[in-house]
Design goal:
Blueprint (H helix, E strand, L loop, with lengths): L4 E2 L4 E3 L2 E3 L4 E2 L3 E2 L4 E3 L2 E4 L3 E4 L7 H12 L6 E4 L4 H4 L2 H7 L4 E4 L1 H10 L8 E3 L5 E3 L4 E6 L9 E5 L4 E3 L21 H17 L3 H13 L6 E3 L10 H12 L5 E9 L4 H15 L4 E5 L5 H10 E9 L7 H12 L6 E7 L6 H12 L4 E2 L4 E3 L8 H16 L1
Parallel strand pairs: 8-9, 9-10, 10-11, 15-16, 17-18, 17-19, 19-20, 20-21, 20-22
Antiparallel strand pairs: 1-2, 2-7, 3-6, 4-5, 7-8, 12-13, 13-14, 14-15
Length: 403
């Protein structure tokens, strides 16, 4: 059965929702699923904008068949060839082998490397500023390399002001019958997943995102719709969501708030972290608290992009980092997190070293990140007489937040 929705009178969403895959890119948990967005334009020429993951290809074919009603598919525009979009191309070309492909040169190379194209038909390389007309509708291409692959291009449809944004402005989460951002409680129910998508999928590439935002800004009030490859289509509050991308891509925190991440083996470090969370809350400081051993690192990274201050409370393990803490820090570095203030709490039975290691990493491996004193040192378990040290740390964090 077809499952389609109108985006505009001539443009249809023909994608699919995936609620079965547990891990996006086999690493990021997606308990609420994910959408693979594909769009079909019915004009003098018929145009498919991007494909879907291989698992969703049967739904895509049903949707296209239903709308074409026997017409041929004239063009396939490929903004990005990652397999969650490109793998379904093989099925589409089996059904409509005469469709012409329009994409970047890098996308065509990747298409062949993955083996997604079973035909030798016409391939058209799109260049920066190049315009293609399909009848009443025309698109102009803009390069957006490294948002988040080097093949990425976006395109702007002139008649109705649609920006096809590839992986930019995407979001985790199946759409569940809804398509547009104003059909969702996006700021409350969807923003955390949008942030997690950005931080982990695109986060490393802040400068390329800034370049894309500049190109979008140049469109001015002609820009009416954002059509990404994951998540809802944006038809209201575009500037609000683009403002989030501006903050994230400049590595500026959204909130003056504390992210408290603890690594505890036998409960002592967790207990001290709990005491610090209480002290911060009593001083009016917003704080969120996570166990590094049980929280997927993608969630921790998303919260790191949101919060201005990060407290790492960790045990020493084999005279080194607690392994999940090391993984978290290395992910921060890989995703280029910057401009944050850190504080530390360490634990060790005979030779605590977590604070020293964390301080060296934060100041030596991350960009423009500072370390706040004092630190709290635990020996196996927190003592009652250390409550003053925890209060002093919370006071220092609170004062820095207000400065």
């Amino acid at each position: 059965m077809h499952c389609v929705r109108n985006v505009t009178p001539d443009l249809y969403w023909v994608g699919a929702n995936d609620r079965r895959t547990p891990l996006f890119e086999n690493i990021h948990p997606i308990p609420q699923g994910v959408s693979y967005n594909s769009y079909l334009l019915l004009d003098e020429k018929t145009v498919l904008f991007d494909c879907v993951d291989w698992s969703a290809a049967p739904q895509l074919l049903e949707n296209i068949d239903y709308l074409l009603k026997g017409r041929d598919l004239d063009y396939i525009v490929l903004h990005h060839l990652e397999p969650d979009h490109g793998a379904g191309l093989w099925a589409v070309l089996q059904r409509w082998p005469h469709a012409k492909l329009i994409s970047s040169l890098a996308a065509q190379r990747f298409m062949d490397q993955f083996g997604f194209s079973p035909f030798t038909g016409e391939r058209i390389v799109a260049k920066e500023g190049e315009r293609f007309s399909f009848g009443r509708h025309a698109i102009t291409f803009y390069a957006a390399p490294m948002v988040h692959w080097p093949d990425v291009m976006v395109s702007f449809e002139e008649t109705e002001g649609i920006l096809f944004t590839a992986d930019a402005f995407g979001t985790f989460g199946a759409l569940n019958g809804k398509l547009f951002n104003d059909e969702l409680d996006f700021p409350h129910a969807w923003l955390p997943e949008a942030r997690r998508y950005y931080a982990n999928i695109v986060g490393k590439y802040g400068p390329p995102v800034q370049a894309l935002l500049s190109k979008a800004a140049a469109l001015g009030n002609k820009l009416k719709l954002l059509c990404p490859l994951h998540g809802p289509v944006w038809r209201t509050d575009l500037s609000w969501f683009m403002g989030k991308y501006d903050l994230w891509s400049r590595y500026q925190p959204e909130d003056n708030a504390v992210l408290l991440v603890y690594g505890s083996m036998y409960g002592g470090t967790e207990q001290a972290a709990e005491a610090l969370a209480i002290a911060l809350t009593e001083q009016g400081v917003p704080v969120s608290m996570y166990d590094v051993s049980t929280t997927p690192v993608s969630h921790l990274i998303a919260e790191s992009f949101r919060c201005s201050h990060i407290v790492l409370a960790s045990v020493t393990y084999n005279m080194d980092f607690f392994p999940p803490v090391r993984d978290y820090l290395e992910d921060m570095k890989a995703l280029a997190l910057q401009n944050r203030t850190f504080a530390v709490m360490e634990n060790g039975t005979w030779n605590p070293a977590a604070a020293k290691l964390t301080a060296a990493f934060v100041t030596g491996e991350l960009t423009n990140c500072a370390l706040l004193e004092p630190k709290v040192v635990l020996k196996s378990a927190p003592r009652e007489d250390q409550s003053g040290e925890i209060q002093a740390l919370s006071a220092a964090i609170a004062a820095h937040l207000q400065s």
